[in-house]
Amino acid sequence: MSDASSTAHAPLRAKDVNAQAAAWLERREAPDWSASDLGELEAWLAASEANCAAFWRVEAAWQQAQRLAALRRGARVGAYLARHNLRPNLFRMAAAAFVAAALVTGWQLLPMHKSKAEGGELYSTPVGGREVLALADGSQIELNTNSAVRVDIGAGRRQVRLVRGEAFFQIKHDAARPFVVMARGHRITDLGTKFLVRERADGLEVALMEGRAQVDIGSAGSKSAMLLPGDVAVAKANALMVVRETPRELKSRQAWRQGVLIFDHTTLAEAVSEFNRYNRVKLVIADAATAKRRFGGTFPTNDLDDFTGLAQAVLGLRVENRGQEIVISR
Amino acid sequence: MGPSLSGAAQTASALRDWFVREVLPLEGMLLHFLHRNWRNPSDIEDLRQDVYTLVLRAAKEEVPEKTKPFVMAIARNLIIDRVRREQIVPIDAATDLDTIDMAADAPGPERSAVARDTLRKLQLALDQLPPRCREVVVLRRIEGLSRHEIATRLGISEKTVADHITRGMCAIADELFGDASDGRRKE
Q: Does residue A4 lie in a domain region?
């Protein structure tokens, strides 16, 4: 490598500096990354501009690489898998009689986890994941972060159970086989629709984008409501409430399908709890006054830098990265 | 934001933001320039690194208003400097210095084009990693598993996991900023 032309400058060659920078970056993601580690890294950076350049460069690239998560959905990855002939077993299940799901998932390696059991096949996404399930009947289910569904589609029925999290349903109507979504004991019966189902701590939310759907709460079906586009039903154990949302609110609700979160006069507390659904590194708000601050904007779900940058620059807050936690305070 | 930064010594984070936002997107052009004006391809990465070092050193004092001419001027001066100082270098190592051609360099990439391209480049970078390395990178970056979790899952040592990740990080950076494959592959 070293020849006559490269004698003059820095003793360490670019490759080595880059490798060191990457090693620092890798270490920084460790769960046990400490303040003294940070001190060491800062000293290393302060030692030379070459170190800074190498570190910032690899750091920027690695942050961008998070966008790869966006490829974990849609046919593009399917094509990728096919092209590389990876995990052919992923495709074998397409032959399975019912969920002929051309299950299109994350890079070859960690597809959406799938397992067969009673009540249909289970599909799940990890924190930060997002997947599209294409069903044999032409319907589609899009799973948000940390979510799971059990899909049971047979000759006489189409039933999906939302085990956890949130999913967007795009259902092909079939009068002979109504599509039923069960969640938290509530039942949603579609009449040819697009709708979003989200499990929340205090109940189940069903937002209808198109078509019509019926929501019945409780296994006894004691209360029910017919949803029209724009309706959002909140189902609790013994109560069902329906509110009408504006197109804008509906759009924000499903922004995750594009990999972003949209906030509009949202408190930091709410925003942080949204971000925390998508990321393993958790945002923490240190004080009540900060939690009540409001702001708006569109942010990638998986990249906290835009958001923390805004918190610092625009809201004037202090942001402290503690490895697995990012603390926001006054 | 860029121009408003000028005129004062830079804080590290402002300098970093500027470097990432303004300088790194020029890397493809910079490499192209270096390749055309320096004969030995194995020096290019080091030259690129030296350009960045000089760019940061200068920008620490004052961030330039226009980044592209600033970076390219530094690259040009570096090449001239090397050729003059290192008498051992055969004189044709650098092409005729008077004709070092700045104008013909590709125009700076538009931001939107960059954004559109990013995924494709990332995908390419991932494609080109050795399978094990790719697997480890995906587990870390996309699935968010820790070094320990990946090691357990794949039955390899944590050290090996770390090595795969650092290697993947470097490859992704080269692909993303340097158009590494476009330059190398002679299609």
A: no
